[in-house]
């Protein structure tokens, strides 16, 4: 066997000091420019930590605005507090995406032996209630990417109504979402049970992102291995796209990898420009995979129409294809029907389009006079072929994908 491909595995990096620091999953001791948001989270859960029934909190903001990092930072501090009866379950809804899985995760966190016995949902629910009642515990359930839960109405109703069955103690919900309008999809009975406080995380600006990158670069790279201009460019690129700190970190990290692969002495502006092309697309595809099902179907419809071309030639110029919103809705409805699913109404469709634009996956324009009156035009912000293949891999079985198209 030729060992040459493995020759560099244990070689010490000349560029990186600690790659983990540049990961979007790394949580620093101090989260820059998020003191106000952390204080708001702490304020919201303080009654719960005191043993009082607290208000539910919903946190919104685009990808990469620090929602999850701030929440995990607060959770770590809560766990360090002495003599607090409050317990916390952090649940990633991309993994635990149903009411049963969420309730089972809660039992797994706090009653692991019970969770392994394969009980049904009613038994799990009653066990959680009894566990809380034992000594008047307060349970904080953090649902990250809450809008991905398939039976969200049932989950919200179950968790909020549990407080009526609990004699001593209670449950507070913290929901985290990229979509500020996700609650509009809830059934009125679920919405009415939510007594909530809302917190919106704003995007980072270029100056803030540059400061964050400099802070991470100091720990993540070896001394004098990053051109300060490269940091500023990565920050400016991410700020112009969406103010996404994850994107900024990914660009800088990938630029470091390019420098290392090419055995150059420093991360340069050119490396950042090259890294940015791949980083933006990678984050977009990751975001597509976390979309709720019907939003994913709408993006799929846009990608198919972008590849096939609009029926209206005057809307297609060069590589840019602009599609009528009505065309997209018709295609989405057709795909839904082929999958034996009921398409959402045009009212919900318009909300989904707004959410997708807010997340940077699409761009929309209002047409001028002369194009069937005033109408909305839609353009996919990323290469449609790659978006289509990503969705087909995750949402459809191979034979379903060809039928839907």
Essential attributes:
405 residues, alpha/beta, Rossmann fold, Helicase, Ruva Protein, domain 3, Arc Repressor Mutant, subunit A, 5-stranded parallel sheet, 3-stranded antiparallel sheet, 16 helices, disordered C terminus
* Strand order in the sheet with the most strands: 2-3-4-1-5
Low-confidence stretches are: 401-405
What's the helical proportion of residues?
Answer: 40-55%
Mean pLDDT: 87
Output the number of helix runs.
Answer: 16
Q: What's the CATH topology name of the largest domain?
A: Rossmann fold
- Biggest sheet details: 5 strands, parallel
Number of beta-strand segments: 10
Count of the domains = 3
The N- and C-terminal alpha carbons lie at a distance of: 46 Å
The CATH architecture of the largest domain comes to 3-Layer(aba) Sandwich
**What value does the Rg take, in angstroms?**
24 Å
CATH superfamily of the largest domain: P-loop containing nucleotide triphosphate hydrolases
CATH class identity of the largest domain: Alpha Beta
**Strand percent estimate:** 5-15%
Order of helices and strands: HEHEHHHEHEHEHHHHHEEEHHEEHH
Q: What features would you describe in this structure?
A:
The protein has helices at residues 35-49, 67-80, 99-110, 112-115, 121-135, 152-165, 188-192, 206-220, 228-241, 245-261, 269-289, 293-308, 325-338, 346-358, 384-395, 398-404, and strands at residues 56-60, 86-92, 138-144, 170-177, 196-200, 316-317, 320-321, 323-324, 362-366, 376-380. The chain has three domains: 35-200, Rossmann fold (3-Layer(aba) Sandwich), CATH 3.40.50.300; 205-288, Helicase, Ruva Protein, domain 3; 291-404, Orthogonal Bundle (Arc Repressor Mutant, subunit A), CATH 1.10.10.10. The chain starts with 34 loop residues before the first helix and ends with a helix. The protein is an alpha/beta fold. Strand 3 (138-144), helix 6 (152-165) and strand 4 (170-177) form a beta-alpha-beta unit. The strands form three sheets. A five-stranded parallel sheet has the order 2-3-4-1-5, sandwiched between helices. A three-stranded antiparallel sheet has the order 8-10-9. It contains 16 helices and ten strands. It is globular. Helix content is 51%, strand content 12%. The longest helix has 21 residues, at 269-289.
């Amino acid at each position: 066997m030729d060992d040459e491909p493995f020759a560099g595995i244990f070689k010490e990096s000349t560029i990186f000091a600690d790659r983990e620091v540049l990961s979007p999953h790394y949580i620093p001791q101090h989260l820059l420019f998020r003191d106000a948001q952390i204080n708001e989270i702490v304020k919201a859960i303080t009654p719960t930590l005191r043993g009082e029934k607290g208000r539910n909190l919903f946190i919104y903001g685009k990808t990469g605005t620090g929602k999850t990092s701030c929440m995990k930072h607060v959770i770590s501090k809560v766990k360090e507090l002495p003599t607090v009866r409050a317990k916390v379950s952090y649940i990633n809804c991309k993994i635990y995406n149903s009411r049963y899985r969420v309730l089972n995760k809660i039992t797994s966190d706090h009653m692991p032996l019970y969770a392994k016995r394969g009980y049904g949902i009613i038994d799990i629910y009653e066990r959680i209630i009894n566990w809380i009642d034992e000594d008047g515990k307060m349970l904080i359930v953090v649902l990250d990417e809450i809008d991905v839960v398939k039976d969200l109405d049932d989950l919200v109703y179950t968790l909020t109504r549990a407080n009526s069955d609990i004699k001593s103690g209670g449950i507070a919900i913290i929901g985290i979402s990229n979509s500020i309008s996700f609650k509009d999809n809830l059934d009125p009975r679920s919405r009415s049970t939510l007594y909530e406080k809302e917190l919106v995380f704003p995007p980072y600006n270029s100056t803030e992102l540059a400061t964050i990158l400099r802070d991470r670069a100091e720990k993540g790279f070896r001394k004098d291995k990053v051109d300060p201009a490269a940091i500023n460019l990565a920050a400016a690129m991410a700020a112009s796209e969406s103010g996404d700190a994850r994107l900024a970190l990914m660009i800088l990290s990938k630029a470091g990898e390019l420098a290392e692969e090419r055995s150059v002495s420093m991360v340069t502006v050119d490396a950042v420009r090259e890294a940015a092309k791949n980083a933006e697309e990678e984050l977009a595809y990751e975001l597509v995979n976390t979309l709720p099902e019907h939003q994913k179907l709408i993006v799929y419809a846009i990608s198919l129409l972008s590849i096939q071309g609009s029926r209206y030639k005057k809307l297609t110029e060069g590589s840019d294809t602009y599609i009528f919103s009505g065309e997209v809705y018709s295609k989405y409805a057709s795909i839904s029907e082929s999958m034996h699913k009921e398409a959402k109404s045009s009212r919900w469709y318009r909300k989904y389009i707004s959410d997708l634009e807010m997340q940077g996956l699409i761009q929309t324009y209002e047409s001028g006079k002369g194009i069937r009156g005033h109408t909305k035009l839609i353009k996919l912000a990323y290469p449609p072929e790659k978006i289509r293949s990503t969705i087909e891999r995750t949402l459809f079985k191979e034979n379903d994908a060809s039928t839907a198209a």
